Amino acid sequence: MIPHSNVIIGLDQIESVHLPHKRIGYLGNQASISSHFKLGADLLYLYFGNRLTALFGPQHGFGGEAQDNMIETHHFVHPKYQIPVFSLYGETRVPTKEMLSHIDVMIIDLPDNGTRVYTFLWSMVLTMEACGNEDIPIIILDRPNPLGGISVAGNIGNIDFKSFIGLFPLPMQHGMTLGELALYAKDVWMIKCDLKVIKLINWQRAHTFKDTQLPWVHPSPNFPTLETAIVYPGTVLIEGTCLSEGRGTVKPFEIMGHPSLNTDIFCDRIYQKCKANQLSGFVLRPLTFIPTFDKFQDQLCFGFQLHVTHPPIFRPWHTGQLILQQLYHTMNNLFSWREPPFEYVEDILPIDLLNGNDLCRKWVEKNGDFDELISIEQDGMQEFMHKRKNFLLY
Asked: Which one-letter DSSP state was computed for residue 367?
C-alpha cells in the first residue's frame, strides 16, 4: 500500500503550474518522484506531451547509475520520449548554450541531502546562472530537506577551497530546502535569473523525513537509505582519508574501516572523547567487511558501523570531526590523507575540499580541543544565519 503523506511536494503540483512557455526542460533524476512514486519526467510528459523537449541529469546520471566522483556520464536520446538527455557531469557541469537552445523554460526537481558537499545543489546553482544568461526562466519544484529545516552545523566553506562540492560559502549542514537555497543564491551570491519556487504544502521545519511519510528513493548509488543521510554530514569526511568509507558495501558512509584498524582501541577512545564533549545519540559497532569495489577492493577490513540511536541529539558533523581526530592519532603512521585529484581539483587535499578549509585538518593533526573546533564552526555563522532567515519559506 502506498503511504499517504500530508506533505505535498512541488512535483505533486505540476499539473496546476502555469507554463505558457512552449518548450520545457527538466533537470532531475531517478529519485525525482511524486509522493505516489511517479517519475517526474513521466508526469511532465503526461501533462505537457511534446512540449517536454529536453532532459538534464546531474552527477551519477539521469538514471542515477554512475558510482563515484569523477565518473562522468554521457548525453543520450531518451528511448521513450525520443528527446535529448544532457549530462551535467561530463565534459561540462554547466548547461551550454547549445543545450539550452532546446528549451524555453527549465524545471529543476532535484532531491538533496542537506549538505554543502552534495553536488546536486551546485548543479542547480550553475543551471540557474546559465539559464539567466539566456533569459530562460527557472522553476524549482521544492522538496523537503531530509535532515529537517532547523539544524545548521559545521564550518562555513572558504572560497579559497572552492570546488564542485562547495562553489560558494555554506555550512556543512545548511538546514534549507533547495527552493530556499535557490532564493538565497539569487540574492546573496548574485545568481541572476528569473526564478519561481513551487513551495511545499504542509511541510514544517521540524519535520524529519519520516514525519513526511514521503517515499525514499536513493538519490545516488552510494546513498541508499535515510540513515545514510543522517550520518553523512560527518562520515563523508572519511572520503578524504585512506580509510574505506564503505563504498563497495551495502551501507556506504555508515560503515568505515581499514585492513589495519584496531577497532577496540579506536572505539574506546572515540566514546571517551565524545562523552567528554557531550556528544551522544549513536553507537559504534565493530565489524569486518570486504569492499567489492573502491578502496581495499576484495580485502578484509576492520572497522565499525555508526548506528544513530537517537537522531534528535546526534550531531553528525561534530562526531565526524572527532572520529577523524581519533583515527589520525590512533592509527599513527597507518593513517594518511587521501591525495588529489578530487572533484577535478588537482592541488588541494580532498579533506580540505570536503571541509571547505584547511583549519579542520590542522585541528585534527594537532589534536586540538573541542572548544577550538566550535570556534572554527562559528566563524561567520552569525552572519550566515542572519542572511538565511530572509529566504526561509517555511
From this structure: T
Task: Give ranges for CATH 3.90.1150.140 in the chain.
Answer: 226-357
Mapped onto helix, strand or coil, the DSSP state of residue 281 is: coil
What are the tens digits of pLDDT across the range 320-330? 999 999 999 99
Per-residue pLDDT averaged across 295-309, rounded?
A: 98
Pair 177, 143: CB distance under 8 Å? yes
For the full predicted model, state whether its pTM sits above 0.85.
Answer: yes
Fold classification of 226-357 is Aspartate Aminotransferase, domain 1 (3.90.1150)
pLDDT at 2: 53
Taking CA atoms, 107 is separated from 28, 46, 229, in Å, by 9, 15, 25
Closest CA to 99 of 62, 54, 59: 54
Close Cβ partners of 152 (under 8 Å, ≥ 6 residues apart) = 171, 173, 174, 175, 381, 384, 385, 388
Sequence length of the chain is 394
Q: How far, in Å, are 163, 339, 353, 358 from residue 348 at the CA level?
A: 10, 8, 7, 9
Q: Give me the architecture of the 11-217 domain, per CATH.
A: 3-Layer(aba) Sandwich (3.40)
As annotated, the residues of the chain forming the CATH 3.40.50.12170 domain(s) are: 11-217
**217 has a pLDDT exceeding 70:** yes
pLDDT category at 238 given cuts 50, 70, 90 is very high
User: Please, how many CA atoms are within 13 Å of residue 83, restricted to the half-sphere of its CB?
Assistant: 19
